[in-house]
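Q: How would the structure tokens look for this protein?
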Amino acid sequence: MESIQVLSLCGIGTWVILSSIFNVTQKIRSLTQPWVSSYVVSTTPITLKIQKYHNKYLDAFFSALSCVVSVPFYTAFLPLLFWSGHCKLARQMTLLMALCDYIGNCIKDVVCAPRPSAPPVRRITATEDEKENALEYGLPSSHTLNTVCLSGFLLQYILSYTQNDDVINGLAGLAIVCLFIFFIAVGRIYLGMHSLIDIIAGLAFGLAILASWLSVHKYIDDFIVSGQNVASFWAVLCFLLLFAYPTPQFPTPSFEFHTAFNGVALGIVIGVHQTYHQFHHESVPRVFNPQLTLPAFLGRLIVGYPTILLVRFCSKALAKWMLPMLANALGIPVRSSSYVPSLSISASAKKSDEIKQAGYIQKLFFFSRQDSFEVDTGIRLFQYAGLAWSVVDLVPSLFFHLSL
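A: Here is the predicted structure in token form.
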């Protein structure tokens, strides 16, 4: 097992270095971007036809639906799964979400395909989260990709958990999932956020990721709960994935989203591995059972959510203090775009350095062209790892001491 871990990490590190040396991202982009961009333009009439039926009720419906499958929603929903006793489902969905976020955002920043042009397309961004999503590149549709993977995996879990072999129930569940995916896909076009090619790519990549995950998730789960060197392996993997990320033509929020969920996955894996036999084994009480009544579950939510928000705040404050100090002690020049005002750089310097956004591990070495490194990435990773750790370790400990 240890040899497999070492080979896996060495393989990722080697790929990162070679892809940088041979400019793999730029070569793939030069082949795919013109083709995808032409399809975005050619399918604009389809978007305009769908938007001809716009009214305030459809605006509200599709905007609300997009929030249901957004990253903030899953950030709130996944802790609820952990605390309701469905720990296996929660940790596997968390890792699947992190995988979807990484692959989807990597593809976005490799291809760098535009979203539908607005105008003539009417773009509706009802929330701050949607406004930030609009700053990303278009292909594939992350909402579509995530919905395919997470709803498909949830259906598989429900059918296996209930041990229901009835074909009718299985087909009914599949029909509900397909209908949900359809509404999400149509909604992304209706809101002007994606073109038809983005949706098709989201469906295709989502089905491929789901099929791959269903074939390996049991092995990954076994490794997390009972493997060797889990914490050290995942920490190094997490570090490598920060650099195994393509540099886009222009900076987007995609890398920030990846960093956040990368940190969440790290915190979940470390926390679950340390406390599996105490809080996350298959015999833990589940909600609506006599051992975990509805009032007790509501008490968990009242205690849990404020606690993880407090931990996130403290983790961020600690990282803002600790990481710059550590970098200074090691002689590493750092800068900050938003978290540490004293490390901010001038607008002109920032503009000249944006194109060299962190993306490859070679930037860590002496031949890097960067004058300084972005400390915000480490701060973001640390705060979300702390938040996730509190969900599966600190908060369950509080539940135990409060008899919840």
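Residues 346-369 have pLDDT under 50 and may be disordered.

The CA atoms of residues 159 and 170 lie 7 Å apart.

Upvote if useful.
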